[in-house]
Amino acid sequence: MPSGYIPILIFLAVAISFPVVAILAAKLIRPAAPSVIKLEAYECGIKAASDSRGRYTVRFYIIAILFVIFDVETIFLFPWAVRYRTLGWFGVAEVAVFLAILIVGYIWAYKKGALEWV
Predict the structure, then answer these.
(1) Strands 46-47 and 42-43
(2) Is residue 118 in some structural domain?
(3) Long-range contacts of 5-14 (CB under 8 A, 24+ apart)
(4) Would the pLDDT of 9 be above 90?
(5) What's the CA gap between 55 and 53, in Å, rounded?
(6) With 70 as the cut, is the pLDDT of residue 76 above it?
(7) What is the pLDDT of residue 31?
């Protein structure tokens, strides 16, 4: 076995053993006395009014997906902002087309009613 792989194997052993040892140590150290009161849902000092497994409307998921999609698309502006001087007018035209497509997407989502909460 080549000696170049020994540091990799040591790192792999440490990376695997650290979480295992930490979880086992926490299990041995922590007090374990579960009761009905300890297992009850609790948030901000207020008892839960109902079960947390209620149904949500699809609108919440659509808004979340639209947010993620448009947010990820705007991240693509960062490399352009870093290199915009070297790209020249070609880069400006590329970003203008990209933003136009993004705006068309927003308009389409708005006209479909995906951004309305009512």
Answers:
(1) antiparallel
(2) no
(3) none
(4) yes
(5) 7
(6) yes
(7) 82
Residue 93 lies in a domain: yes
Q: Which of 63, 98, 101, 64 has the alpha carbon at shortest distance from 78?
A: 98
pLDDT tens-place string over residues 45-68: 676 666 667 677 777 787 788 888
- Domain, as residue range, for 53: 3-112
Cβ neighbours, 10 Å, residue 81? 9
Closest CA to 80 of 104, 98, 68, 101: 98
| Model pLDDT for residues 98-115, shown as the tens digit of each residue | 889 888 988 888 888 777
Question: Is residue 35 situated within a structural domain?
Answer: yes
Domains held by the chain: number: 1
DSSP 7-58: HHHHHHHHHHHHHHHHHHHHHHHS-----TTTTS-EETTEE-SS-S-----H
Residue 48 near residue 41 (C-beta atoms within 8 A): yes
- What's 88's domain CATH number? 1.20.58.1610
Residue 37 inside a domain? The answer is yes
Mean pLDDT of the chain: 83
